[in-house]
Amino acid sequence: MTKPFKVMGVLNGTPDSFSDGGLYVTPDEALKRVEQMCYEGADIIDIGCESSRPGAKTVSLSEELDRLLPILERVSKNIEIPISIDTYKPEVMKAALEYPITMINDIFAFQLPGAIEAVKNKSVDLCVMHNKGMPDSLHSDKQYKDVLNEVYSFLDERIQALRNANIQQERIIIDPGFGFAKTVEQNVTLLKNISQFSNLNCQMLIGLSRKSMFHKLMGGTIQDRLPSCLSASLWCYRHGATWFRTHDVKQTRHALQMYTLLWKEIEL
């Protein structure tokens, strides 16, 4: 049975993100983009100010804060929508938690020293993503003996680390980390077996939007990746995922709504 879904709109406040870098770096530009995504049906906005694309340079703490805080200030004061912050730095988490945010989305799964301490006594949700790398080696290590088992075990271990800090299971959202230090074949293996991650008893977020794996599988431009992404997202929804992180909010919501309508298992 399908469950209610949530569409997470991506806001990149960066000059170098792979598909929309430089478009939303000022507070005014960011606010307009958030307004558009709200109109298109976003349930939550994920704001990130450090690119995680292959080849991107790491960003200093001060630079990330200088990018993020003016955008967060403007958006949180002008639009009532849940906000997620995409960061792995504990200091950025602490600064963002001074604002009315509802989630921290950490691509390093709260592994950096101080990350768990920064969030454990707060009420926000925590998205834990599988990532074999670290900030200085984000996409380099793609060696797995059994990618499905290793990703599953990693997420299980990170869930336990958060639970050991007295963080409730209901606050934890898992993300298999498509495209992060994984080959196309490894990504496809995870997709085919996505239902296995439901056994971890956490909500599941899927981040497939505009990933290069779709170009390698199907060809075309970045814009041509949308049909493949939507197809894969519906597959994941059918098999347990309920959060969908996307640049294409309207199309993702419509696809999920139509799928739900056909199954007639929940009301729109």
Helix content: 25-40%
CATH fold type: TIM Barrel
Overall morphology: globular
Query: What is the SS-derived class?
Result: alpha/beta
Strand order of the largest sheet: 1-2-3-4-5-6-7-8
Radius of gyration: 17 Å
Give the distance, in angstroms, between the N- and C-terminal Cα atoms: 15 Å
CATH architecture descriptor: Alpha-Beta Barrel
The main sheet comes to: 8 strands, parallel, barrel
Strand/helix succession: EHEHEHEHEHEHEHHEH
Percent of sequence in beta strands: 5-15%
How confident is the prediction overall: mean pLDDT?
91
Main CATH class: Alpha Beta
Can you tell me the CATH superfamily? Dihydropteroate synthase-like
Determine the oligomeric state from the structure. single chain
Q: Provide the number of structural domains.
A: 1
Number of strands: 8
pLDDT below 50 for ≥5 consecutive residues: which ranges?
none
Tally of DSSP helical segments: 9
Explain what the structure shows.
- The protein is an alpha/beta fold.
- The chain has one domain (4-261): Dihydropteroate synthase-like (TIM Barrel, Alpha-Beta Barrel), CATH 3.20.20.20.
- 40% of the residues lie in helices and 14% in strands.
- The protein has nine helices and eight strands.
- It has helices at 27-40, 61-78, 90-96, 115-119, 147-164, 184-192, 212-218, 226-238, 249-263; strands at residues 6-12, 44-48, 83-86, 103-106, 125-129, 172-175, 203-207, 243-246.
- An eight-stranded parallel barrel has the order 1-2-3-4-5-6-7-8, surrounded by five helices.
- Strand 6, helix 6 (184-192) and strand 7 (203-207) form a beta-alpha-beta unit.
- Helix 1 packs across helix 2 (61-78) and helix 2 runs parallel beside helix 3.
- The longest helix is centred in the first third of the chain and has 18 residues, at 61-78.
- It starts with 5 loop residues before the first strand and ends in a 5-residue tail after the last helix.
- The relative contact order is 0.13.
